[in-house]
Amino acid sequence: xxxxxxxxxxxxxxxxxxxxxxxxxxxxxxxxxxxxxxxxxxxxxxxxxxxxxxxxxxxxxxxxxxxxxxxxxxxxxxxxxxxxxxxxxxxxxxxxxxxxxxxxxxxxxxxxxxxxxxxxxxxxxxxxxxxxxxxxxxxxxxxxxxxxx
Length: 149
Hints:
Elements: E1 2-8, E2 21-31, E3 34-40, E4 43-49, E5 55-56, E6 58-62, H1 65-72, E7 76-89, E8 93-100, E9 108-113, H2 117-122, H3 141-144
Antiparallel strand pairs: 1-5, 1-9, 2-3, 2-7, 3-4, 4-6, 7-8, 8-9
């Protein structure tokens, strides 16, 4: 089960590049339910996500590079490219700060995952977070793969 809050970011914290970073490329084979492929650094995954906004089922399966490259040709919409910075928060939480590249730049989103809905609902974001878009499907990456400006 994935429980997360999502926020637009308009101003990056000055030190975000000092934190661990992953280079991500992902595409979608299906958007309802979500079936995604992802390359994160040198690792490859196939992910299933159920419908939902703040709370969704999520299953990740490893892929080989060969399987990823084969499935990559079958994706629908744009391949999403982004850098994901992992910034620490109290209570062993992490901000996943996604800085989008290519056609989606300069979009920046922050996600924070939680062990329960109660903790997600009680979360007070840092001051530099922008609008809460948790309950807008428009900012799911599966929607961004088809986003038109």
